[in-house]
Amino acid sequence: xxxxxxxxxxxxxxxxxxxxxxxxxxxxxxxxxxxxxxxxxxxxxxxxxxxxxxxxxxxxxxxxxxxxxxxxxxxxxxxxxxxxxxxxxxxxxxxxxxxxxxxxxxxxxxxxxxxxxxxxxxxxxxxxxxxxxxxxxxxxxxxxxxxxxxxxxxxxxxxxxxxxxxxxxxxxxxxxxxxxxxxxxxxxxxxxxxxxxxxxxxxxxxxxxxxxxxxxxxxxxxxxxxxxxxxxxxxxxxxxxxxxxxxxxxxxxxxxxxxxxxxxxxxxxxxxxxxxxxxxxxxxxxxxxxxxxxxxxxxxxxxxxxxxxxxxxxxxxxxxxxxxxxxxxxxxxxxxxxxxxxxxxxxxxxxxxxxxxxxxxxxxxxxxxxxxxxxxxxxxxxxxxxxxxxxxxxxxxxxxxxxxxxxxxxxxxxxxxxxxxxxxxxxxxxxxxxxxxxxxxxxxxxxxxxxxxxxxxxxxxxxxxxxxxxxxxxxxxxxxxxxxxxxxxxxxxxxxxxxxxxxxxxxxxxxxxxxxxxxxxxxxxxxxxxxxxxxxxxxxxxxxxxxxxxxxxxxxxxxxxxxxx
Length: 565
What we know:
Layout: H1 19-26, E1 31-35, E2 38-41, H2 42-58, E3 66-70, H3 75-86, E4 90-93, H4 100-110, E5 114-118, H5 122-129, E6 139-143, E7 157-158, H6 159-165, E8 182-187, E9 197-201, H7 202-216, E10 223-226, H8 233-236, H9 238-244, E11 248-251, H10 257-267, E12 271-274, H11 276-284, E13 294-298, H12 305-313, E14 316-324, E15 329-333, H13 345-352, E16 357-358, E17 362-369, E18 374-375, E19 384-390, E20 396-397, H14 401-407, E21 408-409, E22 412-421, E23 427-432, E24 436-439, E25 442-445, H15 446-454, E26 459-469, E27 473-482, H16 495-503, E28 514-517, H17 531-539, H18 545-549, H19 559-564
Helix pairs in contact: 1-2, 1-9, 2-3, 2-6, 4-5, 7-9, 11-12, 12-13
């Protein structure tokens, strides 16, 4: 067996770039991309990517060079996901929600050879470049409005002119020589630490793309709405995945309720991805239920069951996934079982809120006690850290050996997320390790408390963090943003009402000892709640006077709890 060699005919390095020439051959005249009045076919998209790849090579872009882009969901950003790796380079899609300082930090760390900037972000880019030394400045390319050019420039080069002058005959696409080569560089959101540069391999991106298409059940020729930013883990790999299925990409620059509902109606959208925060945007628009169901893959934060139930009534069929930048996007999918269809809506929503089973691209996913690296029992109660292993895990953090040493242990990647495993093998996240509240020796999942509060009809957003307590060490503190109709007037909601609601839903020791009302929760540039800022604020708070002395009859009488008294 070992004497059989690899041949060009039976061994080709895995790369998501290969999905594009196939789409051009199989779906040549099918619409590949729609953005406003701009429409391309897969033949045209392939030709444009070939030309852009050739133009990059003519600008001396070499293998493993980083090419950064600051742009919303536009044809240019989509095309660069193929054209940049076709030139042998590494695409770095920068978060458009960052300020100039955040963009500058990425540019300094990534050291790109080229920086493409959409006309909408010229000012942010210009401010960011002020802190870059002249010797380190990348070559700049402006991406103008494709339908109504503004003429704005950030350098001498412009995207459409660059595409037009590319000559694939002189600079054909470079072959992927090693599937371990880097295809993309993405930066973490930095919710618990400084953002880190995460490097994806061609192999990992390919396997993640194929696995997610299969687990989500995406059939050929879907109509995919870009409600998820392409800069977020390369659109959870759907930048490449839509090409793999010959689908149509429907781009919107900003995912407002009007833009999304209009796209769904005008183009017959079948699939979209969204963080749970976007569900509130869809719900607040108060639209009638959709005429046909839209499949939605959600992730980024554990969605409360009550929120899932509300959005599904509108006609959005939700599948929950769990992942992170380091896992090339989704690492677990809540695969739906047919036997769950007969359950009442609240029970179905609770099942959908779980993170699910491992992605097909992984060799393993587990919840372990990090002290012993032993798997926790499948009881749905015992907490441990979620760990992953497989080819879709990142190559590592760029220029950060210390972080790499901390991230990998005993053949596993440590996610930093705490979860449980249910008897059926489905994992449910209970929060980041820093978000588990240890009160009197008992672990309290902030996610569980948040889910209970989301069940109250007045709650728009909620985040629960630890607050100091004189007896228990720390107890839950809830930061709550109310729906507009409940902020004042006859429908006004009090702290005591919310606390009473919690007591009816959970053991009393899990009930928040304080509710702080806010207009909205603080979020970072990717829309994730900044719990670090809330924890800092909670440190200066104290529980209500009645709770400081009153014993909690529901609290288990552990020795750790007794020692606190």
